[in-house]
Amino acid sequence: MAQVTIRQVNKKYDEVHAVKDVNLEIHDKEFMVLVGPSGCGKTTTLRMVAGLESITSGDILIGDTVVNNLPPMDRDIAMVFQNYALYPHMTVADNMAFGLKMRKFERSEIEQRVRNAADILGIGTLLKRRPRQLSGGQRQRVALGRAIVRHPQVFLFDEPLSNLDAKLRVQMRVELKKLHERLGTTAIYVTHDQVEAMTLGDRVVVMKDGWVQQVGEPLQLYNSPANRFVAGFIGSPAMNFATVTVQARNGALWTQSAGLDIKVPERLGTSMGSYAGRQVTLGIRPEDVHVAGAGDPPGTTFDGDVEVVEQLGPEILLDMKVGSEMMVASVEPTHKVKVHDRIRLALDPARLHYFDNETEKAI
Amino acid sequence: MIEGAAWRKWVFFYIPLALFVFILLFPFYWMAITAFRPDGELYRPWNAANYQPFWTRNPTLDHIKYLFEETLFSNWLFNTMLIAVCSTAISLTCGVLAGYALARLNFPFAGSLGTGIFVTYLVPQTLLFIPLSDIIRNFHLGDTPWSLILTYPTFLIPFCTWLMMGYFKAIPKELEECARIDGASRLKAMIYIIIPVAVPGILSAGIFAFTLSWNEFIYALVFLSSPAQKTVPVGVTSELIRGDVFFWGPLMAGALLGSIPVAIVYSFFVEHYVAGLTGSVKG
Predict the structure, then answer these.
(1) ipTM of the complex
(2) Residue A148: is it exposed, middle or buried by C-beta count within 10 angstroms (0-12/13-18/19+)?
(3) Which of B181, B187, B195 to mutate to test the interface with A (most CBs of A within 10 A)?
(4) Do A155 and A285 have their domain in common?
């Protein structure tokens, strides 16, 4: 068990600066998820921790050891790959035993550990088979088994669930979570799927273009995103954004666009003050918008023309035109809404976000 | 497969296929039948009453006996085998290692080196034998099996390297990365993981190299002079064609016996061989 420290790490390929000044502290027993769109540097970061990529500058520590120049075999880590990377010419048992054999463990110890891991993962009956005779989910379990028999200090996961079908992915996600609780090994998990990131991570790192955008617990990212990118990336359906102009009126700040006239909540009054007369981006999540009722104060409501109605069962998603912008609202399934209806909606002022148009940072 | 009426299958598939098979196999049939035909029938004029070009009623082993008793055919067989096995082993070892390096180690100029190796394969042997014969003479290797064991790799190594490079590139690199994380050094990962996975590719390269060196003619003709040192292709053609007289029976018997080892090698590995050429690595 160990913490992993990534200190001021950069990775440059010939022309691409893939990872820029990344600083991360992954605590002992923590499940840390790196998430971001493809090409954001998350996999490169993971591969540098694994020792599969060299570090251009900076330090990576596992426990208290600087591992910059250690080969992968000496870092005491285990990695699960997206395509499983099972050795096709070996049986399941040999696949799991390979790492132990390379490290010259006793035969009885190897057998016992393989048996144990197989029991944990429910693949005890498959030990004699070869990878090509297994289904996707079974292969994934074998790949996990190969990682856990080693009792490494750190698990590294590189999009391990991406090759599974949707149903199996949800199931394996739950099992991974249970497995981590049971073993308590420090884990770094790379994914492009924000749902996986939110459900699995003790903490989540959002990356984009090689930069770390925000590090925090899942709800922290959801409730107070540091910038517009994180706000739009976390949450599904994505947050609505609208360009609005800040105006001082009647002793309060208002934000206006063609279809919106929203009062800035008092908690943001001071920081928004300096933006008076300028344009900012307003952000509101679809789930923080509801059909307006009598109790909604002025400055929180707006009108929209419904263009698409998506019935999901527990909620209805309305794609609406508000002024010149498109917005999505998630409303109660009890509302009877038809396409082309004009309806009045209200947003929850406590969950309103504003972003600087130039820096894209949250205000 | 061709859809539709039965006659379409016959016209577009079975009949062309049959023609193709016939054209391919007829020379072998001719070789085999000639090897077992007595001399009297071989040199019978085409308008003779009992002329039977495609069949014989009196098969004989005389030509084969003649080969082994009156010529150095067994020497030639042994020489060819020795030379083919040694040069294949050398080329395969170098080819596997070089192919792996070119496919996996990101060293400077790997790409241009790969192209360079391929270009050497394109240099025709008919040009290359002239400088090579000079080298062979300087090293006093003329008329020994070494002259061929050491020169065949000049075209076999590029060939094996390219075939193996393609094959290694098709193996997911995660396999090796996983092995290295699992505790294997680069060399161990190659020995325990990559090479076993690449066996079909190695077998196809080996079969190709073996066949090429078994059938090679020009170098063998130039570098070997005494009859006892010759290989089958050179021995048969130089010793059994005297002046303008062709000893068709022994010639064909020699060709038949000479092609049997290659056929055996092929039939042993044919499944792996096909898998190697189609380059399939399934996880």
Answers:
(1) 0.83
(2) buried
(3) B181
(4) no
